[in-house]
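Entry 0007
Protein: Class II glutamine amidotransferase
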Amino acid sequence: MCRWLAYTGSPILIDDLLYKPTNSLVVQSLHSRLGAEATNGDGVGVGWYDEHDPNPGLFRSIEPAWSDRNLRELATHIRTPLMLAHIRATSGSAVQQTNCHPFRHGRWLWMHNGLLAGFAAMKRDLVLAVDPELYPYIEGSTDSEVLFYLALTFGLQQDPPTAVSRAVGLVEEVARAHGIAFPVQMTVATTDGTRVWAFRYSTEGQSRSLFRNTDVAVLKAQYPENPVLHNLADSTRVVVSEPLGDLKGAWHEVPESSYLVIEAGREELTEFRPAA
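Output (structure tokens):
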């Protein structure tokens, strides 16, 4: 599958997130501890926001994260208060730039770890459910991008939890018609540049791993000698496919069938259910 990271907090160099942690996303691209595959080398992508433009910047490459020189170059020069980063292990679709995450539409970013099982059988039905005005913006061939455009069709820009719930509900409905028992496996992150939503769900109830960081103020009190922590604002929030390091008490698993909403250092955890 894939690994991903969502960050919101004080402005930080991309390099500090992608390369410097003990179990950074670049390390995970070669040696994932909790992923379905140890190696995630089928592409890399970063989407970020700054104070100059409400629409995010986007870098996507089919190079493995561990050897992408352009990624390393931009990571040491871009500072951002909010970013999504993704390393890809394809579940069958082509290794091409338009299939790399995050996906972008206007000011929105979206990335996905997991798969829609039986996507080839369901694809026609799912694509035909996408709003005709949105359909021309689908560039690649992945199930992840189709799920994004279904969520947009169902109102992602107005009410993300309801839109994702309806999109997942549609996939499960179509899957039943095709005799597919467990179609949805997902951890998803999406953002409008202000808030971040992170979802963990699978039809089978055995979702891919997802973690959130402990409150930074608590960690600073527990580890007063740790310089990395003291460079972070208390409002910093990180959601990851797997922990970026081994600091005891730094990470909490996001529960099965739930979603997080993060804004200005505050987070809310809510149960997630697909809508019929």
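Curator remark: Residues 93 and 192 are 27 Å apart (CA to CA). The mean pLDDT is 93.
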